[in-house]
Write a structure and sequence with these properties.
nine-stranded antiparallel sheet, globular, single chain, five-stranded antiparallel sheet, 20 helices, alpha+beta, 33% helix
Length: 740
């Protein structure tokens, strides 16, 4: 199993690695900030669903909770810091296999004494509410004293915005500290508790001041004699569904009393056992000339797992997961289109819960549609806990113009409606979950189709969809965005199909839907085989984008042009028509797919983290394996690459999901055709073998692909139909097929 390793301390990367090495369990995410303080370090602990508004007219944001990790350490009269003294060795690693973060440092103080520090931490996978830290200190040269100050620090903010009221802090029975906090607007209660355990009897005292509840530990150190400090913490909130009537305050004490008796190592072992189950059921194994490929996929799967709140369908996955405050923790189309597919093919129940999140917010979506003059359901572009629109009204100030531009996404980026409907059907195609589809699925399809029927307008004898933003956010307020129109058509078509399947008697919706399907304008390829992205895109001027492509992800073009200027040129932020080709490859001839892939990639800067992996999939299916592998590699570098600022505010959750998608839907080239699982492998030449687990129609499969052979084994479940390179097989035990 690969590990993510940091071999040296560099302040430039301090927040990037805090995001990269986040640990968590879907309930709680804990950024990998150092125990000791550094000025520019952004600490962060987040619990799924805990949002708050700093003021009434601001959007909700995922609350940065009080810190439970920080330590002020003093040894040999010196404050421990990697910016003072001398760092003789340094290594930090995130062990994906166990979920533990470990940091080992050999440090020489200003007075010349050497100390070995080992920092360990984990967030329990077997219990949502438990986290543990362990510090081992060895004095290598002399007798000395160590002083450690640690506790619960509620001075944490969301970039300066304080979301919590400190309601109560106390020391219980002389060894347990507890803080009770409440969000200022949403009214959620958070209870944090912790206790310290030392390897030898130590002097421990407590204090509370300025929103800090602190434990101070003093201990004499003997040469080569390890001193160990363990801290077990518990996190509970008023949103928890598993505390069985207890208040968070009581639940945190009960849990801590139970788990502190086990100690760090025993708790870690229990958590690691759950991680072992995860990797056994879901790990992809790649034999590649580049070791980085395996690391990138392991990293993606680990982080998707720790940011998915599988414990509660009231919550979903934000654009940064639980790794940082970017995008205020909001949920976008990213979840359905880029993160949910991993769960659908590995643990469908999690996919179901993510769709239930949308269903539970359906009334708010209907209210948004009505307030905008439409029927049906218009889901918010950005959502949080309540299901209301959370998109900020204005973007950050453009330093070129000095002005704030109005954010248009909430009023025009309506394709999210069809994205959700599309995913509902993809879920059904894999699971055949009639109970879900008959109730939640059908209602979602009907209300989203009502929206599109009311959204379209009559023009020149046909129906058109005007004033939208497609996936490409550099092209705003356009008419007949190809992606949006095709997705809307597909949305309505499938609503009618499932209405008929389940005997729905809404004759008026059926009639209106059939008329919509007959009359909606769907952009076709022109004489050059190019599908117009919208009514005007192909008539706009072009510029040389090569220098902007070199710094993709930085949105550097907005330093040279205003958004309005960019809007009037053939410039894409991300895959748009190419996204359409990924979702509906069967609608377009292979030559049209290739021509559009080349044309639109030439005009795409890839300033969105969602873009490269989609291009990788379409290129792989088109047989352009070298280019596809290049896209895959570049997508893998979005977070893991050398840019020190790429992930400061959190990881790119959708990009992580898209790396799995590129592997499965591009290189393995799996899809569902009729009632069959189809594979048409397109593996990179650098890969000699690709092995992965998969769940299809309730059956658990294991698939091994090489350039010469495919071996598909049914691990459990019913027999399934498999299509491999166009030939059909009934999988009852194992199928082995050699390629010519």
């Amino acid at each position: 199993m690969k590990k993510l390793v940091e071999n040296g301390f560099d302040l430039r990367y301090i927040n990037k690695f805090a995001s990269l090495m986040t640990i968590g369990n879907g309930y709680c995410g804990l950024r990998a900030t150092h125990e000791e303080n550094y000025v520019d370090q952004t600490r962060g602990m987040y619990v799924a669903g805990i949002y708050n508004k700093a003021t009434a007219n601001e959007p909700s944001e995922l609350v940065n909770l009080p810190d439970m990790i920080g330590m002020n350490i003093e040894v040999d009269g010196d404050i421990f810091s990697l910016l003072t003294g001398e760092v003789l060795s340094y290594k930090r690693q995130l062990n994906f296999e166990t979920g533990e973060l470990n940091r080992e440092i050999l440090w020489k103080s200003n007075s010349g004494a050497r100390f070995r520090f080992t920092f360990q931490r984990f967030v329990a996978k077997n219990d949502l509410h438990v986290l543990g830290t362990k510090l081992t200190v060895i004095s290598l040269d002399k007798n000395t004293q160590i002083k450690i100050v640690t506790g619960i620090n509620a001075q944490q903010t969301n970039f300066g915005k304080q979301h919590l009221i400190e309601e109560k802090v106390r020391v219980i029975e002389g060894d347990l500290i507890q803080g009770i906090y409440k969000t200022t607007e949403s009214g959620h209660t958070i209870a944090l508790a912790a206790c310290c355990m030392c390897s030898v009897e130590s002097d421990i005292s407590y204090s509370a001041k300025n929103r800090q509840l602190l434990s101070t530990i003093k201990q004499d150190l003997l040469p080569d004699s390890p001193f160990v400090l363990e801290r077990i913490g518990a996190v509970f909130t008023s949103l928890d569904a598993d505390i069985m009537g207890k208040s968070p305050e009581v639940a945190s004490v009960v849990a801590l009393r139970k788990y502190s008796s086990y100690g760090y190592d025993a708790l870690l072992e229990k958590s690691a056992g759950k991680w072992a189950q995860f990797w056994k059921q879901k790990r992809i194994k790649i034999s590649s000339t580049r070791d980085f490929d395996q690391l990138a996929v392991d990293f993606s799967l680990y982080q998707i797992e720790v940011m998915t709140p599988a414990h509660d369908e009231r919550f979903s996955v934000g654009a940064k997961g639980l790794t940082g405050e970017g995008y205020k923790g909001h949920v976008f189309w990213d979840t359905e289109m880029f993160i949910l597919p991993f769960h659908l093919f590995t643990e469908p129940e999690k996919a179901r819960k993510l769709l239930r999140y949308r269903y539970l917010k359906l009334e708010q979506a209907k209210e948004k549609a009505a307030s905008n003059g439409f029927e049906g359901a218009l889901f918010p572009w950005e959502s949080a806990f309540t299901g209301e629109e959370e998109t900020p009204e204005f973007a950050a100030i453009n330093i070129k113009t000095g002005k704030r531009q109005k954010v248009a996404s909430a009023i025009a980026e309506h394709h999210i409606v069809a994205d959700i409907a599309y995913t509902v059907v993809e879920y059904y195609k894999n699971t055949l979950d009639d109970a879900f589809m008959r109730k939640e699925g059908l209602e979602l399809l009907k209300e989203t189709s009502r929206f599109w029927i009311s959204r379209a307008v009559e023009e020149n004898g046909q129906l058109v969809i005007k004033d939208v933003i497609g996936p490409d956010e550099y092209t705003e307020h356009v008419d007949n965005n190809a992606f949006t129109n095709y997705m809307a058509w597909h949305n309505v078509e499938l609503a009618l199909f499932f209405m008929d399947k389940y005997g729905d008697s809404d004759g008026l919706l059926m009639e209106r839907g059939q008329e919509f399907l007959k009359r909606l304008y769907l952009p076709k390829a022109n004489d050059h085989k190019i599908i117009p992205q919208d009514d005007t895109f192909l008539s706009k001027p072009e510029i040389d984008l090569s220098r902007y492509k070199e710094s993709q992800g930085s949105q550097g073009i907005l330093m040279d042009f205003s958004r309005q200027e960019v809007n009037e040129m053939q410039i894409l932020k991300q895959a748009d028509v190419v996204m359409l080709l990924y979702l509906f490859p069967e609608l377009f001839p292979s030559d049209v797919i290739s021509e559009n892939l080349h044309y639109y990639e030439e005009h795409t800067i890839h300033d969105s983290s969602l873009s490269k992996a989609i291009h990788a999939i379409v290129a792989a299916r088109a047989g352009e394996l070298e280019k596809s592998y290049e896209f895959f590699h570049e997508a893998s570098l979005i977070d893991l690459g050398p840019n020190p600022l790429s992930s400061d505010e959190g990881l790119h959750a959708a990009s992580l999901g898209a790396i799995w998608m590129a592997t499965m839907f591009g290189f393995a080239n799996i899809s569902i055709k009729d009632h069959r699982l189809s594979l048409k492998p397109n593996m990179p030449s650098d890969w000699s073998e690709l092995a992965f687990p998969l769940i299809f129609r309730g059956s658990r499969l294991h698939i091994i692909l090489t350039h010469k052979q495919a071996v598909i084994t049914k691990v459990s479940g019913d027999d399934v139909l498999i299509e491999l390179n166009g030939a059909e097989y009934l999988l009852s035990n194992k199928v082995e097929v050699s390629f010519q």
